[in-house]
Write a structure and sequence with these properties.
This protein has about 750 residues and is mainly beta. The chain is built from six helices and 38 strands. The chain has two domains: about 20-100, Sandwich (Immunoglobulin-like); about 200-375 and about 395-749, Beta Barrel (Maltoporin, Chain A). The chain is globular and about 80 Å long.
Amino acid sequence: MKNILFLCVLSLASFGYGQSTIQGIVTDAETGNNLSYVNIYLPHLEKGTTTNASGEFELQNIPPGSHTLVCSFIGYETKSINLKLPLTENLSISLIPSAIEMEAVIISTPFHKLQSDNVMKVERKTVSELRASGSVTLADGITNIAGVESVSTGLSINKPVIRGLSSNRVLVYTQGVRLENQQFGSEHGLGLSDAGVESVEVIKGPASLLYGSDALGGVLYINPERFANANEQSGDINLNYFSNTEGYNTSLGYKSSGENFKFLFRGSLAAHSDYETSDYRVTNTRFKEQDFKAGMGYQSTKFKTEFRYNVNHSKLGIPEEIGMQTTDKNPLLPYQDITNHVFSSKSKLFFNNSKLEINLGYIYNARQEFEDEHHHEEHHDDDEDHEEDEEHDEDHDEHVAEEPALNMKLKTANYDIKYHLPKTGRFETIVGVQGMHQTNANYGEEELIPNATTNDFGVFAMSHIHFENFDLQLGARYDNRWLNIENSESLTYNSFNGALGFKTNLFEKITFRLNVASGFRAPNLAELTSDGIHHGTNRYEIGNSNLTYEQNLQTDLALEYKSEHVELFANGFYNLVNDYIYLEPDGTLIDGEPVFNYVQNDAYLYGGEIGFHFHPHPLDWLHFESSFESVTGKLNSGSYLPLIPANSINNTIRVEFDTKSMKSGYAFVKLQSTFSQNNVSNFETPTSSYNLLSAGIGSTIQLFKKDLFISITGTNLTDKNYISHLSRLKPDGIFNMGRNFSIGLTYNL
């Protein structure tokens, strides 16, 4: 008993000793002037501050050991400094002026480094950048990231596509946990609001080593907004109006932090009418969304934890054909009613030179679909009968169905535990376990997929090795998935995967990255068990319980050149996918619908992105940006894969300005040129090329001594009638959205 008490006291003592303070001053490397309002941030602790009017800063209650300190400020190169605490003297940090945008710490990779220090290439965009592009939703906004597109059903239902792969091949993380919301269905959208989101990161390529099954094609990592800095508080209200849909979204948020405790909350509402083309409104693309996010955290010297909660409720119209032309925002039948709850917990225990990271999540997804049972098959003998039937249709469309035809509840508990070993010489190493327990249950009259239970377990290790002239990152992982299907057999899938990455500076300003990684994906329930008409696609789908898991090997090559006024990049990839699962028609009909079977064949994808960014001296406020994206996907038989994005070029001219009355101002003009897509699968049709012109302006002004950010953006300014190759409305010849003007206001309270 005495020994137990002694160990408890010793354990408690270990969390109370050795707190450190970081103090320093930040100056301009050329003039020596002190810099105020510089952001100072410790990414592993998620703790930060800003320099005062004299350029000084202080961070208290920092655990001893190794830390990375990041300093960032507009107009200067972001600086990353490795520290060993406790320090013997104050820091003196100098920042180099630069017209290049500030770098950010990448959270989706395990070592939380600046992108310039990362071995793996990761794309990152802030939500403010996505909104400035005129995007209506978060899922629409991510298509502005190089290599990312979306399969869309109108505006509200969008599914991310990374280099030609989508659905269960792309994993989505939010609040640090894996999001599960029946993402296997092409008519099932992202289900996340951009309110309360800080940034989006995209890993383009297999990330199974970090995240397990379903990360075969890549990861979309959604970073929530940060808590306020210690002893600070802030609030804001955001309003956005969209002319095309006569729609709006608005949010209100507040956050406050003490030295130890912190909290935040944000609520948002959105509603949109059917989107408009130059010829018509697309009936039942309307939608409504309510979203609420909250978080609370505690941080001491040796321990930090945070708990976040997000509930998102949306009603999404499912378009079928062009019909009623109204600006009503209440969805017609058929429509989806979806409620998604995300509970997440992130905790870190800090030891002298190591730390333990524990992420837990629980996702409750309730998906209901209400269908219109009235069919227009009757023949009318006279106009009077026809008018009565039209009145009946309107009454029926406005009627809210009492019982959903489809009622699915998906409950997912997941865990992610990582131990960061003490740094030894050149080595940084992480070992960890991840897992998931998931149940799917049906309560409606229709059953899209059966009741089932899924269990995942994975164990992995990864090291980052720092050499004099290059960096090496390598790792290995083993995964096992158990799938128990009601009234059917139990299935087991397991896979071993690895990754190897290399980064070096070929010359002073040229960075070279080479990454080779494998990934896997177990077949989903729809692929294994489907046996019925899929109403969203008008076909009869038959699953295959003998499907094996997909296994891929991707090679990525990235070159970057950065100078004071010019940036160039070229990214190329080749992705070999063994046992690729896809749908293939067999030429027969059931109930008048063509039969499609889930089959497997080896496939490969290749392509990449190239681009440049030029900001000429002395006109550092002027920016020219251009990028080209390409991806090709084929089966080994020579047939093209379906839903592969068309090649595209984006050209942007942007100016930045900063005056006494208008701070952080910008204006841009962008031309997106999408090529025709003629490389289509056996059951697709080619898609014509098109050009879309957009422009925008924004700035921050003072109103009642508070900051008010105003932005105006116009998209598809020529009101072009076009159809995206990834639009699920393409078979019906329905155009994508026409001209749209959006006005955004954000006021700091």
